[in-house]
């Protein structure tokens, strides 16, 4: 039997991935097979790898990818072999009540696809995580997970649009509905946070206060639009926010750190009537302690969002346009490139607080 591709398989949480030869099923129905050219490492991949969200290995992670369609099922309508696409984890039906309310990230009846699409050399099935499994040379996905990209768009920057960028933008525009002149806090300046900063700048926020424990992020976040930078390890963040907002608190806070202390800390920093948007995905059962009298007495809202409540068919083309117009920075968000062979090293680097986006590249024969 011929093994046409390699995948980085998680055989055990907290252990290095194992690069193995695998087989991949052929595309049926509305499925497409995509040869991956670039896959960014998302913090969600790292959380999964550490076992924060459960699941049972073996699993193939990776969900922020771009590549070329190499095979289409007999019912695909939007794509042809050779099309260049972004692969997202968002597989939605387009017709359920959630999809009808522009919340495709929480689609209640996502279409099924061949599962498992991958088998290892012992012919054992290898499930993929987050509808993608893009830490692999090819993926089998539903065509609705793919968005076409222009011929001249680099796969590396395109891959970023599959998750972190749409989440940050969606959180600010679709969920937080930031208006011109508002004051905004962004806690955590990783892949999602830096894009919430860009979105707030484009929306016309008058003040964008970035909060992060990595001082070496300050220069980048200021370049992307942050007007102020607070390191909560060395400065009382609440006091600093009050000083910057004339004692009222910010209009909105966007929390990219997926951990309850960061969410709890944001609530006192917003003004009466303001909103806290939870963008980062906390570990399962991470309970947050919030002063309920502050919520009720000051009419504050705490809103959760998955994937920034993005609608990929609208949002990704809009972001591509902003990139082409020079308004959206993508190239400068990538700090490291690694070959697929060095994926374990790439994940280690991606887990350090001072790295930006780390992208894996694939050499195809
Ligand atoms: Zn992600
Ligand atoms: Zn749906």
Task: Please describe what this structure looks like.
The mean pLDDT is 96. 24% of the residues lie in helices and 25% in strands. The strands form 3 sheets. Strands 3, 5, 6, 9, 10, 17 and 18 form a 7-stranded mixed beta sheet that branches. It is globular, with a radius of gyration of 20 Å. α6 (218-224) links the parallel β12 and β13 (228-230). It is built from 11 helices and 18 strands. By secondary structure, the protein is an alpha/beta fold. The structure holds zinc ion (2 copies). One zinc ion binds at residues 42, 44, 63-64, 163.
List keywords for this structure.
single chain; 365 residues; alpha/beta; Quinone Oxidoreductase, Chain A, domain 1; Rossmann fold; 2 domains; six-stranded parallel β-sheet; globular; binds zinc ion
């Amino acid at each position: 039997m011929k093994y046409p591709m390699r995948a980085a398989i998680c055989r055990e949480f907290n252990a290095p991935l194992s690069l193995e030869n695998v087989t991949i099923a052929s595309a049926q129905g509305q499925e497409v097979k995509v040869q991956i050219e670039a896959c960014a490492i998302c913090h969600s991949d790292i959380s999964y790898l550490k076992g924060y969200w459960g699941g049972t290995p073996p699993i193939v992670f990776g969900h922020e990818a771009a590549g070329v369609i190499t095979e289409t099922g007999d019912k695909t309508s939007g794509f042809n072999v050779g099309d260049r696409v972004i692969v997202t984890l968002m597989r939605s039906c387009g017709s359920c009540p959630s999809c009808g309310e522009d919340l495709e990230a929480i689609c209640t009846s996502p279409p099924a696809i061949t599962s498992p699409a991958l088998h290892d050399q012992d012919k054992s099935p290898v499930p993929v995580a987050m509808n993608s499994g893009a830490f692999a040379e090819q993926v089998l996905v539903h065509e609705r997970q793919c968005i076409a990209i222009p011929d001249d768009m680099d796969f590396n920057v395109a891959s970023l649009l599959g998750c972190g960028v749409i989440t940050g933008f969606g959180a600010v525009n679709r969920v937080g509905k930031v208006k011109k002149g508002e004051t905004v806090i962004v806690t955590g300046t990783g892949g999602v946070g830096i894009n919430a900063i860009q979105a707030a700048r484009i929306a016309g926020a008058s003040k964008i206060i970035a909060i992060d424990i990595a001082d070496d992020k300050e220069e980048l976040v200021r370049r992307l639009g942050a007007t102020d930078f607070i390191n909560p390890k060395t400065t009382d963040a609440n006091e600093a926010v009050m000083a910057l907002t004339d004692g009222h608190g910010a209009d909105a806070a966007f929390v990219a750190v997926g951990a309850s202390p960061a969410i709890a800390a944001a609530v006192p920093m917003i003004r009466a009537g303001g909103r806290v948007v939870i963008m980062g995905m906390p570990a399962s059962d991470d309970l947050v302690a919030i002063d309920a009298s502050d919520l009720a007495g000051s009419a504050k809202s705490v809103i959760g969002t998955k994937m920034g409540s993005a609608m990929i068919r609208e949002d990704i083309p809009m972001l591509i346009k902003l990139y082409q117009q020079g308004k959206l920075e993508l190239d400068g968000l990538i700090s490291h490139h690694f070959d697929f062979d060095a994926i374990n090293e790439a994940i280690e680097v991606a887990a350090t607080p001072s790295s930006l986006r780390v992208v894996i590249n694939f050499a195809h024969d």
